[in-house]
Amino acid sequence: MLEFYSVRIAEIESAMTSSYALHARSRSRHAALPIVTAIVLTLAGCATAPVGGPGAPPSSTTTQPPAPAPPQPTAPPLPRNVEPPAPKMNLSGFPIQYRQGYADGCASATGAERKDASRFSSDMNYRTGWTDGRALCKPK
Question: Which of 8, 49, 75, 112 has its C-alpha lying 20 to 30 A from 24's C-alpha?
């Protein structure tokens, strides 16, 4: 009986050794997978698409300056002594300069720009009203 067990133990040891060696080789392959993946992703992140997008011809070495923007049409601002039209908001507690700026800014948001440049640079109430009017009346 001892021989039966000794043969059996030798077979088991042999099987375990070969199984361990096979598992160790596959484990080393699996250990390299994250490293290879990280390298591939890093290199893929360095690739860039052409400026015009995929399929666009490469840009030439001479670049042309962008065309100047066409001037915006302007409308005359409200005179200083005229009460502006009633807005959709209640502005009764605000000074006349703010209300005039609000009316000009609101009109600028929906049509041609209407701004009194000298008042915009010197009158804080007009400037604040103009920026508020343009921001609140801008189409969404």
Answer: 8
Residue 107: closest CA among 63, 65, 76: 76
Q: How far is CA 88 from the centre of its chain?
A: 33
Give the model confidence (pLDDT) of 70-104 as tens digits: 666 666 777 777 767 667 778 888 999 999 999 99
Two tokens at 96?
């006349």
Q: By three-state DSSP, how is residue 123 classified? A: coil
Angle value at C-alpha 88, between 86 and 90, nearest 5 degrees: 75
DSSP state of 115: -
116, amino acid identity? D
Rounded Cα distance between 25 and 127, Å, is: 75
SS3 assignment, position 100: helix
pLDDT band at 14 (very low <50, low <70, confident <90, very high): low
Residue range 109-132: mean pLDDT, rounded: 92
